[in-house]
Amino acid sequence: TAPPGAAPGPLVVLAHGGPESRDYLDWDRQVQSLAAQGWWVLQPNFRGSGGYGLAFAGEGWGRWGDRMQEDIEDAVAQVVAARGLDGDRVAIMGASYGGYAALMGAVRRPDLYKAAIGIAGVYDLPDFMEFVARRDDSPGKEAYDFWTKRIGRPEADAARLAQASPRRRVGEVACPVLLIHGVDDEIVSVFQSRRMKDALQAAGKSVDYREIRDVGHGGWEDEVEQDMMDRCITLLRRVFA
């Protein structure tokens, strides 16, 4: 999405959640809020996204932190080159899986991203799998089985899951971070963001943390979302100045 006038300038990567969701060419008020500031917005449908068939979605299974991130990085390089954008002013943000992608992007590419914003994100994969296992009381452990297929098995894949967890690699983060999470989130526990914040602070990193009471994983009221976007835009204005 181009800003008014389509002049070359900064770029905000907005990674979708799911990850087996996708972005469409339609109205998105977060995108429009960012573009109205004069920034370009990139919404990549990376491997692992939905809407392109099971094989395409399956390309992301067990590849959190590598192939899916590589697709986002490749998309950034492509759009910067194609549109003549400012490759020295790129930020990344997202919610849920998109929050994971934002913080993992900051870990993998400290040279690229000047800010990372995670909203209700997953930042420690072993902790998330433990959370899912603890809450899944279905007879066949359907939810736990679903996520082990997508992310991995904590015992067999312990080293890979740790490597793919931003909270365990905060020393590699170089940009300022904004974390936002609803206290009543029953899909991704607020403890994911609390522990990420603690780890970043312990490592001496720049982090702003905002908890929102009486809201869950999504579907926030307009005034709550507006406050969230105000905080995001404030950070982005600072790093893009």
Estimate the global geometry from the Cα principal axes.
globular
Main sheet: strand order: 2-1-3-4-5-6
Q: How many helices? A: 9
State the order of secondary-structure elements, H for helix, E for strand. Answer: EHEHHEHEHHHEHEH
Distance between the termini: 20 Å
Give a count of the beta strands, DSSP E runs of length 2 or more: 6
Outline the biggest β-sheet: 6 strands, parallel
Low-confidence stretches: none
Give the amount of beta strand, in percent.
5-15%
Which value, in Å, is the CA radius of gyration? 17 Å
Q: Please bin the fraction of helical residues.
A: 40-55%
SS-derived structural category: alpha/beta
Average pLDDT, rounded to a whole number, is 95
Account of the 3D structure:
- This protein is α/β, with parallel strands linked by helices and 241 residues long.
- 41% of the residues lie in helices and 14% in strands.
- The chain has helices at residues 29-35, 54-58, 67-83, 97-108, 125-135, 142-150, 158-163, 190-202, 222-240; strands at 11-15, 40-42, 90-95, 113-119, 177-182, 207-212.
- A six-stranded parallel beta sheet has the order 2-1-3-4-5-6, with helices on both faces.
- Helix 4 links the parallel strand 3 (90-95) and strand 4.
- The model has no long low-confidence stretch (mean pLDDT 95).
Short description:
The chain is α/β, with parallel strands linked by helices and 241 residues long. It has helices at residues 29-35, 54-58, 67-83, 97-108, 125-135, 142-150, 158-163, 190-202, 222-240; strands spanning 11-15, 40-42, 90-95, 113-119, 177-182, 207-212. Helices cover 41% and strands 14% of the residues.
